[in-house]
Design brief:
The chain has 87 residues and is mostly helical. It has a domain of 46 residues. 85% of the residues lie in helices and 0% in strands. It has three helices and no strands. The longest helix has 36 residues.
Length: 87
Amino acid sequence: MANIKSAKKRILVAAKKTARNRSTRSEVKTQIKKVSVAVETKDLLAAQSALVVAVKAIDQATAKGVYHKNTAARKKSTLATLVNSIA
């Protein structure tokens, strides 16, 4: 454990940020999985609506700094391609 007050604060702040990032990443993964399941069942309407929700979640995660903008763009592009494959 750290002895210096500022180091103790850094540990607490890092723990908060880690928890927030983990939660946000988990939510994005859940939304991506919903798109994948809809595509596997060849349900176009469900896939398209899930895609909208997933893209919004990815954008929000990017705005919070959880994902780099290129990573977000890659994830969105992959999902869009997946949904378009059943269209």
